Amino acid sequence: MNKKKLGILGGMGPEATEILYKKIIEKTAVSGDRDHLDILIYSHATIPDRTEAILNGRQEELWDILSQDVKMLKGAGCEYLAVPCNTCHFFADRFDECMDGRFINMIEETAAYTAARGFKKVGIMATDGTVKNDMYGRALRKHGVDVVYPDPDAQSKVMSIIYDEIKAGEKGDKHKFMDAAASLRNKGCEAVVLACTELSVFNVNYELNSDYYIDALSVVTKACIEKCGGEYLF
Q1: Whole-prediction pTM
Q2: Shared domain check, 85 and 111
Q3: pLDDT digits (tens, 9 = 90+) for 34-58
């Protein structure tokens, strides 16, 4: 199979983008450099905050910027697109249209993976933008998986970890994280989806239990490799 060039629209945040690239390198089966994928990364770190824009009615302003970025990557020969920002998947259908059906949808990939693991009820840890738009809920329910979102107190802890800690270059408060996760476990969740790539950074920092925590960034890594013609290293 001929390999396809992958475009990564990143910078949301930059560390998550770095982790996705590193995961793709580490999980591609290779015997030399030429077995790796060709990847073009645009780390657009100065783009407006996705949650703020979506929750305050500035979606079209944000999309105008994103669409130009996608056109740039596509114009540079990228045949597939990945966006390591869950909240940005608010625009998933538009990304897919711009890429002629070759947008690698992290939320849909994670929903399918979660269902394939046999989970019937999962918790979602994500930004307010992702939660309030029920992005994971809509995707998971199509696969017969029930979704539980954190209560307001737990959600405020999740947002604090994402914005006050990880995005500020800190490691993240594990006690705060575990408090939020415990509230989901107490509601009968069989697993928790790390549905924000800043929480994927947190996962790298603390090496959470992969039997219980489903990392969306890890799931989309496999999809990127396989869709672009690489061999995924299990």
Answers
A1: 0.97
A2: no
A3: 999 999 999 999 999 999 999 999 9
